[in-house]
Amino acid sequence: MLYDIRLHLHYDYAAAAGGGRHQVHVLPSTISGVQRVIAASLSFAPAPTERSDFLDFFGNNVTSIAFRDAHDALDIRMSARVSVARQEPGLDVSPDIDRLRLELGAVRSLAPASPHHFLAGSRNSSIDPAITAYARESIGGSVTAVAMDLCNRIHRDFTYDGDATTVRTKASDAFRLKRGVCQDFSHIMISGLRGLGIPAGYVSGFLRTIPPKGKPRLEGADAMHAWVKVWCGRDAGWQEFDPTNGMRASNDHITVGYGRDYSDVAPIVGVLKTTGGQVGEQAVDVIPLEQEKA
Q1: What is the pTM of this model?
Q2: I need a surface site. Which of 5, 127, 209, 222 has the fewest CB within 10 A?
């Protein structure tokens, strides 16, 4: 699939900010065997005093910006053309959980893709006994089967509710609520798998949404999305699952970055020299190229 992606983040400040510094994670990356970025751009208004672009530890695109002058709003615009060609899932060659532990013990690398970085609890996905007990009900067969079953159960048992949680909600809180959004469902799945000793990480990106039959696609109706990557053993490697939709990641999923949880790949984090609060808006368009030409 070939997509044109447009993202607009807008922030209004209650009082003019005398300065600020932010890190932005919104540019997709080329990932071998998953996707290729053909072209991409990222702009800011007002223009930052300082800007640097680099890759973080996990290989994600990061843009660091700083402002010295007063400003009462910030606009971030990203556009990209991305080709996505995920490999179809093949024969399940993942081990059971007992065998997975032996395979993990044989991994000596601490490179960014090493499963050892994704075993311990993290800021938003701590290992919670209640979530571990819930995940344990999915044990049976291979690690891939466990992950798929847990993915489907979260999709079935939890209610999508954009008003129930915030970006600061932890996995344990969302689990007790049984409500949340893609970020929460991903954190719950990550916490549950790690509680079973299965390495799991957070994937930030975009999801193509298909309008009802006969209805036009609404401009800006899409949003940033989140799903889960799971280390399914030496031979199966990393596999990706979307608990919000109860499915494996497909060619409709466009990756921005990988991390231990949301805090590693939040679209924007930083500090402002100001008083009062701020109001933010997000608009995303994920447009299949053939639809663009129609």
Answers
A1: 0.94
A2: 209
